[in-house]
UniProtKB/TrEMBL annotation:
Its EC number is 2.7.11.1. GO terms for molecular function: ATP binding; histone H3T11 kinase activity; histone H3T3 kinase activity. This is non-specific serine/threonine protein kinase. PANTHER family: INTERLEUKIN-1 RECEPTOR-ASSOCIATED KINASE (PTHR24419), SERINE_THREONINE-PROTEIN KINASE HASPIN (PTHR24419:SF18). Keywords: ATP-binding, Chromosome, Cytoplasm, Kinase, Nucleotide-binding, Serine/threonine-protein kinase, Transferase. It comes from Eutrema salsugineum.
Length: 608
């Protein structure tokens, strides 16, 4: 147990002595959209304020990713709570910065903040002045949620947050429940309804624009259950519930152990939500998590990205992404729990497309299957380090050697093995090339129809291919059953970091305006040009739905097949590809492209 401290005394002391220091801390903005960071200036300042740990490099002196290829780093995933908006029209291109419409046919109820306001007034009145008489709260923040504005940030949370941030303390999630419960209250902008029903997580993972109701906005505020009989690990989602909090009691127990305190209230909440979304009460060790999928000794590294290291574990692939650390990894600021939470939700949402029930309106197998997601903690296991070093010796890693401290946290995505990426996959003939194009196009069309999905980063590293014995694949697009000729090729789309989706509850997207470097890739390079075209199409309104971005990536793909992939083909085949590309330029969505004559003899519509 850590040393006992008097929390209020420390808060007061830090506000009195360290006024400047507190001022230097980034202001806590609750439930507001994240401020954009210019990579060069503001981000650098922010990074400078953090402690940056020296990183070891790989064995082979491979070139590290340059700033352009590393450009994902400053992106902050943002989301819009669908329920907060009232525009119920089908989505057209919205005006710049206008909030997008919610899915069709959903009644929207504006959140009721009255109760919270009353509640916080009560909290403020609750002898806080008596307990902490001197310092004044200088900055009162503004909460925004949809169109609602609640102009008072509760006194309690403001001061606690500042103090905690200034302490930069560690935050093991589980035991700090006393504080996190209070934070939960302080940060909440939605009704404090219990979410102890069995469907709490189902509603998070399985809601679609078609079946969602606007009432369940509280699903992102899961609090861990403290039931003693729950196994700490792998708690089923239905066991997650809210607790009734006796605030008076909590305040009386505000003398906390210093090693159980979060550095950031919102951060703590995100981390807890992330754990909840992964069905955990606390992070697992790597071995605990990995041993469910394979003999740990058999683990081999198979690939790497800017953020993720991919390992084969049995028949699955584990992509490990470090999070929340205060030092850079591979030259990049580590992603935060809230960003990963969104990627987790996005992955589970896309998984729903794999369910091919009779009443399904949209279904396909094109997006990689997410089998499990776990939060892990600890340094890299020696087995993983060996696998990393073996790969480095063979391929020369662009990433840093994985030296992580005891408290490092990660998200581990357990995915189906999707095969080889398009960059290295050898297409044998025109039929295989057509199969690639039609499957990507149909998959995007299905995801557009189901979730207004846009991938936004469909370069050849994010399309995996494998061969199998089947000749067709089943899709359902807006209720229509379609069989697609595959010529024995199976496509899997991965990496949803930049993707935009409407889950029915929320619109999840990444504000790419915060990453100007993404649009500064080399002139004439197809991938860089595609980012620039996306920017033109969206007019930097990244939260909006512009299915045309999917078409831009399809055009990129046709270009790539024509210019970068060599396979057996005739000049007629090339002509067909070129005219497909031309026609594509007129389409506004992948759904429109389905009816292109290029694909007609590959699609077999089932007449019901
Ligand atoms: N399910 C999978 N099956 C096979 N290989 C995979 C799978 N997932 C990832 N990989 C391999 O790992 C590499 C890195 O994965 P991914 O692109 O998802 O990581 P990332 O860090 O998000 O990348 P980026 O740099 O684009 O952000 C891929 O290019 C691929 O080679």
């Amino acid at each position: 147990m850590g040393e006992r401290v008097d929390l209020w005394a420390e808060i007061i002391e830090s506000e009195e002595e360290g006024g400047d220091r507190v001022k230097d801390i980034p202001k806590v903005e609750v439930y507001q959209r994240r401020k954009k960071l210019e990579k060069s200036s503001e981000a650098a300042d922010l990074i400078g304020a953090w402690s940056v740990k020296g990183t070891r490099t790989s064995l082979i002196n491979a070139p590290k990713r340059d700033s352009w290829t590393r450009s994902l780093s400053t992106r902050g995933r943002e989301s819009i709570a669908v329920g907060a908006y009232v525009n119920n029209q089908p989505q057209e291109k919205p005006a710049r910065r206008k909030k997008p419409a919610i899915p069709k046919g959903k009644a929207v109820k504006a959140p009721d903040f009255k109760k919270e306001k009353e509640y916080f007034h009560e909290v403020d009145a609750f002898e806080l002045l008596e307990e902490s008489p001197s310092p004044k709260t200088k900055n009162s923040s503004t909460w925004t949620a949809g169109e609602q504005v609640v102009p008072e940030l509760p006194h309690l949370s403001t001061r606690l947050e500042k103090w905690l941030i200034s302490k930069n303390l560690n935050r093991p999630c589980g035991p700090s429940s006393t504080l996190s419960k209070i934070l939960e209250y302080s940060n909440s902008t939605t009704r404090l309804e219990p979410i102890c029903d069995d469907d709490a997580f189902d509603s998070l993972a399985l809601r679609t624009p078609e079946n969602s109701s606007s009432s369940n906005t509280s699903i992102f505020r899961l609090i861990q259950s403290c039931d003693d009989d729950l196994n700490a690990e792998d708690v089923p989602f239905r066991k997650i519930k809210t607790e009734e909090i006796d605030l008076e009691d909590e305040l009386k127990r505000l003398s906390l152990t210093s090693d159980l305190i979060s550095p950031h209230l919102d951060f703590e909440k995100s981390f807890c939500d992330l754990l909840s979304a992964c069905g955990q009460m606390q992070p697992s060790s790597f071995m605990e998590a990995l041993s469910k999928f394979c003999e740990p000794e058999s683990i081999v590294k198979i690939g790497e990205g800017t953020y993720g290291e991919a390992f084969r574990a049995g028949t699955s692939v584990c992509k490990i992404v470090p999070i929340d650390g205060d030092f850079r990894v591979n030259g990049e600021i580590q992603k935060r729990a809230d960003e990963l939470l969104e990627e987790v939700i996005l992955s589970w949402t896309l998984n729903q497309l794999r369910e091919c029930e009779t009443e399904a309106q949209n279904s396909c197998l094109t997006f990689i299957k997410t089998q499990d997601i776990k939060v892990c903690q600890g340094p890299y296991d020696p087995i993983l380090i060996k696998a990393w070093e073996d790969w480095d010796a063979k391929h020369g890693s662009e990433n840093d050697h994985p030296d992580f401290p005891e408290k490092q946290c990660y998200v581990m995505f357990v995915l189906e093995h999707g095969g080889k990426d398009l960059e290295s996959f050898v297409l044998l003939n025109f039929d295989e090339a057509r199969s690639l194009l039609v499957q990507v196009m149909a998959g995007l069309a299905v995801a557009e129809a189901a979730f207004e999905f846009e991938h936004r980063d469909l370069h050849w590293g994010n399309i995996l291919l494998s061969r199998n014995n089947s000749s067709t694949q089943h899709f359902i697009l807006e209720g229509k059953q379609v069989f697609i000729k595959t010529f024995g090729i199976q496509i899997s789309i991965i990496d949803f970091t930049l993707s935009r989706i409407n889950t029915g509850e929320k619109i999840l997207f990444l504000d790419l305006t915060s990453d100007p470097y993404l649009f500064k890739g080399p002139k004439g390079d197809k991938q860089s040009e595609t980012y620039r075209k996306m920017k033109a199409v969206t007019e930097d309104c990244w939260e909006g739905h512009f299915a045309q971005t999917n078409v831009l990536w399809l055009i990129y793909l046709v270009d790539l097949v024509l210019t970068k992939k060599s396979f057996e083909r005739s000049s007629k085949d090339e002509r067909e590809l070129r005219s497909l590309k031309k026609r594509m330029e007129k389409y506004k969505s992948a759904k429109e492209a389905v009816s292109d004559p290029f694909f007609s003899d590959m699609l077999i519509f089932q007449i019901s």
